[in-house]
Every structure is written in C-alpha cells, then in structure tokens.
Amino acid sequence: MKEHKHHPETEAVRAGTDLDKKNGPVTTPIYQTSTFEVTDNEEQLRATSTDMFYTRYGNPTHTVAENAIAELEGVDAALLFASGMNAITTSVLSLLKSGDHVVAQRDIYGGATKFFSQWLPKLGVETTFVDTTEYDQHGRAIRPNTKLLYLESPTNPTLRVVDLRQVTALAKQHNLITFIDSTFATPINQRPGDFGIDLVMHSGTKYFAGHSDLICGIVAGRQDLIHKIHETRTTLGGVMDPHAAWLLLRGIKTLAVRVQRQNDNALRIAQFLARHAQIRRVHYPFVEGHPQRALAVEQMHGGGGVLSFEVDGAGEDAKRLTEALRLFSLAPSLGGVGSLVTIPVLTSHAMISADQRQKMGVTDQLIRLAVGIENADDLIADLEQALTVVAGTRQHAQVNSPVILSGAGSFARE
User: Of the listed 147, 160, 191, 206, which one is catalytic?
Assistant: First the structure.
C-alpha cells in the first residue's frame, strides 16, 4: 500500500506527474500515435515491455493517467480500458478459468449481471448471486473452487452500502480475490484498497472524466494482479485512444472539487425528496433513514452524486416526472457536470430479467438522479415543478375517469 502523502484535492491535480522542477510542458502531451520508432532491433526487443512500443501494449499518455489513478486509490498500479464493461470482462477473464466459481452480489450494474449470469457459463465459470448485505450468505456460497468475490458499493441503482472490512476478512479467510465496482464512490469518497480490497474498478466514463464526453474503464490494485490483467488486455485489445486518455487526465484534475459539490447537491436533494408527500422512498447513503447510513458515514467521506427514489404511483408516473424535468437531461450514465435522470428498468437494468430486478428492488417507479454541479436550489425547484406536473396530471385523470354502475348499485372506476 502506498503512503498517502497528499490530500485528494492535491493528488487529483498533481498525481502521476514529476514534481521536480524542469523545463517542459505543464500539461501532459498527447502521444497520438499507434506505434513507436527505434534505432535498432536490440532496442526493439527492450521496448516491447514499455509504453513506447505499440499503443495496444501501452502509451506514455496512458501511463500518466494510470499512475495518477493509482495514487488517488492508494494502490500499486492501474490500467485504462476502452469502457467500464471492458474493464470488468477483461479483468475477470484474466483471473478465472473453466471450472472456477464466483460469488457476486445481487445488487450490481445490469451489464455485469448479464456477463456473470449469461456469458461466463459459456466458458465453464459459474456464479452464485447473494444478497448484498447478508454476509452469512456470502460465506455459505463459497465453494472449494471459488476464486472471486465480486462487489459493488454503493450499489446501482438502490445505493446499498457494503461493509468492506467484513467482506475482505471473509475473502482472506478463503483466499479469494476481491473485486469491487467503486464507480459511484470515486476515490474522493472511498478508497477500497485501504480496506484490503484487491482490485478496484471504475467506469471512468463517469466521475473521472466528468464531462460526459468519453468512454473509459479503470482497474486499479495489486501489482501482480494488474500485471496479469495487462497481459489479457494486450491480447483482447480493449485499450483507450491516447487523446481520450488525455481528456481523462484533464477531467481527473477537477475530480475532487466536482465530487464535493455533487455530494452536497445530492444530499440536499435527497433530504428534499425524503420530506415530499409524493415520494414513497429515497435511496441515498447519507440521508437519515438509510439502513446503512452509519456504515456509510464510517467508511465514506461523502454520499456521492447519485440517488434514487420511488414515486408514489405507477411506472407511468415515473415516466411523466422524468419527462417534465428541465434541468435534468433524460439520459443514461452519471458523474458529469450536468445533471441527468433515468429510469433504471428502461436503461441500466433493462438487459436483465424482471425477476432479477425485483430481487434487487428495482421497480417501475424507481427513478435515478445523477446530480451535477448546478445550483442545488435550481435543481430542487426543477424537481418540485415536475412533481407538481405529475400530481396535476393524476388529478385530471381521476376527474375525467369514466365510471360505470356496478350490480350492487355503487360506483367503480375503470
């Protein structure tokens, strides 16, 4: 574990760069090249294992971003990938073989659920899904051939929080690799490596990039595991373009200040929604009433910029609300400076079965907000006007609903 020498705000700006005074560019150059020239064949052989051989193997722009991320996470090393799902699939394929077994939380991103439940079985790898916070279930699911414990915290989209100390202790007891999706938290709010997690994954598309303008995956952790994953990434080829890596670096520099603002905004919005008569329940780790609030406050520095809530009504009411919002763009993804809204059953969890969604608590009425850095009062006002629109539409429908006379002489609505 690397010593944490600077605060996160400083690491976000300076990590991965040489702090010694020198003559040169202040901003990391973009090595926009597919290949690198050498002077002779001996140098060619030496270059093969470096970031100046062929960009599928590595690239100097990638290296600066990877070093910055490793420092932010407080771990040995990091790797960039073409997308978050590419980071998950490449890493898992590098660590498992036919006959192995995975224990995974039930509450994880829908794309990861599909990969574990539909794709890995084709390769002879079985996955057992367990309740996210029932740690006895985790233990009972472990078999002699179990190799990996797959986690996500906070979870997408119901914002459940995993006790990282408890799961790492269980994994060490059974000699398992721990792999966590920490996209919602970011290293500003949570550093899983500090709790003993082996590998930390992020969809860098989200908070690290921060501007909804690139696709990126990140895995950071133990050097021996990162080396193994790098070999697989080189074979499968899921690397970032150098220019995208440069944009990622630019985003990382403002990561800390953006996340702090998003923490503050999301908490205020969660508190507003929790008091609103038209809202059935709110999911946000730092709001009063969240079942794991004490744990979240203990192991996180902030609740993050994502929250979800259920409207008091049907799925159609959720659709009306999302379509009535003006400052929240109706779009998937999260982590950018602009606020987004989405209905998970139609986007992030559309690819999994209704039964799986039900077990995860992902209902038709559930709305997910990805809060940006706008003024919180403006965002709350937007939610208030949208809720008013939904209430008015519902009242209008009730007033104009046709009635028929029942056989008992009373009125029943159709």
Answer: 206
